[in-house]
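If your schedule permits, I should be very grateful for your opinion on a structural question. Kindly check, if you would, that the fold set down in the tokens agrees with what the sequence suggests. Thank you for your consideration; the sequence and its tokens are set out here:
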Amino acid sequence: MMRVTLGFSFVVGCVTPPTPNSEIACDVAFVDHPAAEALQAELDGVVAKGIPGLSLAVRTPDGLWAGAAGMADIEHDVPMNPCHVHPWASVGKTWTALLLLRLVDAGELGLDDRIAELLAPEVLEGLANIDQVTVRQLLNHSSGLKDFNEDLGYLTWEFDNPSGDDPPEQMIDFVRGDPAFFDPGEGYHYTDTSYVLAAMAIETLTGDRNAAMAQEVFGPLELVQTELPLSGGADPAGRVNAYWELPGGQLENVSELQASYDAQVIGAGNLRSTPLESLRFAEAVAQGTLLSSGLADAMIEWNPDSQREDDEQAYAYGLGLQRRVVTIAGEPTTWVGHYGGDIGASAVILARPDAPIGIAAGVNLGGFLGGPLNAHVGDDFIDRVLELASGEP
């Protein structure tokens, strides 16, 4: 999950929790799955260490399982269940990439078109080398653009003004005039800025990014609890509360701030879903079922500069996809998906391209700033779930 360590602290304005209505009926039960006991034990073990709540969907060789542990709403004692709706943070980048590639398949644009051909000059003014940056380079983080989330001025502004209704240009303003990290196509630097621009391009091409996502992705996958939240929009039924880890392991309700971020950071986050529906999406991406074979292959053309020789998990970034290689039963297995960490949410989707196996997990604890509690849903937890998903005891 993406984490940033900052040398300062914020004071979050008080909210009256819970901001969302976390109550939701759920009759999902997979107690007969052979891995049910082991998977539930993993969730219970994490919650016992202080995580507020999490839910998980897993596709194993024996079928589908979903479960949850902890609380969706601590203040009102609402237990987490598999039907709760989570913010999926940077996992939203994969959804943005898939929609944009669906438009490429439809002939609306090309991967190597320059973003300057799609967006107005005033939108792009002051962005380094932007006249050279292509759609492909936006999606694989080879644009060289700075991430507005790296700017302390942006972070302070976001914390102080959790409205969610500012135009995307306001985020981009924080990186105008900043130098590029490298020439376009000549490096790797993970940046939310690129995905906001990608979302703006989708809006320009379709006239309605939300309607296009519903038609091109939500509809074909029959997703009914997944949405791109809008500023001022109603909370979906069963949206979890969001919590931020304070020093000493204390939790603060930051649901209002998270809701603002959900609506504002279009393309780079801006997605709410359940683990079951996100798993269905992850499987479709891994199997390439919504794209032509050429574009499905393009998603896993890894940016060579994103790979590190000393990385045991062989991380790499393609077009809105991250790669993870995990040794299971003595054999390397390759998974594709994405991690996400916001102020009050953490998430992950991973699926195997070579087998119908995958996971999707949502946690109502912020992963953006890290912290000791957040570490309990890090690599060790994910690897153990991947082992169980693969049928290993």
